[in-house]
Specification:
Low-confidence stretches: none
Strand order of the largest sheet: 1-2
Mean pLDDT: 92
Number of domains: 2
Radius of gyration: 25 Å
């Protein structure tokens, strides 16, 4: 029983962490790029987008998992889209009522969560085949992974594009604070444009690809050395066996 619990805990941890690193929706699967490029001009906007996205993803995953045995195969995809659209509408209305600055900043990209490949993809690939708890953990990991990814892009874009980090401009329930790091006049306004978004995205992908390739190369070299070592040990054992047989004769 204890081993089973340990295995379940290990699976839950791996299920959560895969969305952060191994299967990160943005930097590994390259999904959800449209809002990632459009809503990362500021760190506040990226946090807001990430929170709304994660809420929709968790709610839709949980409901799809609950209804997975009731929805006929023939209408599965349209049903999932209706479920996702329902939660997006609720989130949109809530944001408009209580966070109007966030609503006006994100604009149409809140509605576009409906057709976000990540949300529908997790519903199709995971929630429709797994229990509610696992689907919740999967959605939580993917949502946090996506949020961290767009936050990373926003940090570079806001820092290089404006030379400062501003808080409280979108989330008006906190005092507005501006941290000016780069002196005015030295910022690179290019990074506040779509071109800058593509540049930052490409550079991050390049760094990730470099790290992954280096890890793969190191693993290949270690495996090669291990094979050579085993081959040498096998030859040595064969030589010793031959010498022993010769001595016996």
């Amino acid at each position: 029983m204890t081993d089973k619990i340990k295995r379940e805990k290990g699976y839950t941890k791996a299920n959560f962490l895969k969305g952060l690193f191994v299967e990160n929706p943005l930097f590994v699967s390259i999904l959800g790029t449209c809002p990632a490029l459009a809503t990362t001009k500021s760190l506040e906007a990226a946090i807001g987008m990430g929170l709304l996205f994660t809420i929709v993803l968790i709610c839709s995953n949980v409901l799809v998992s609950l209804l997975r045995k009731l929805i006929p195969e023939e209408i599965r995809t349209p049903s999932y889209i209706v479920i996702i659209a329902t939660f997006v509408t609720m989130v949109k209305m809530f944001t408009n009522a209580f966070l109007p600055e966030l609503y006006s900043t994100l604009g149409v990209f809140i509605s576009l969560i409906v057709v976000n490949c990540i949300v529908l993809g997790r519903a199709e690939a995971y929630a429709s085949k797994n229990n509610v708890f696992d689907s919740f953990i999967d959605a939580l990991g993917m949502g946090i992974g996506y949020t961290l990814a767009i936050m990373l892009m926003a940090i570079f874009r806001e820092f290089l594009g404006t030379g400062a980090f501003t808080f409280g401009k979108i989330f008006t329930f906190i005092p507005e604070v501006k941290l000016q790091i780069i002196p005015k006049g030295y910022e690179i306004s290019l990074f506040q444009t779509p071109v800058g978004a593509f540049i930052v995205f490409a550079l991050i992908l390049a760094v990730i690809a470099f790290i992954r390739n280096r890890k793969a190369e190191l693993k290949f070299n270690l495996d090669k050395q291990e094979k050579i070592r085993k081959a040498q040990e096998a030859k040595l054992k064969a030589a010793q066996a031959a010498a022993n047989n010769g001595g016996n004769k």
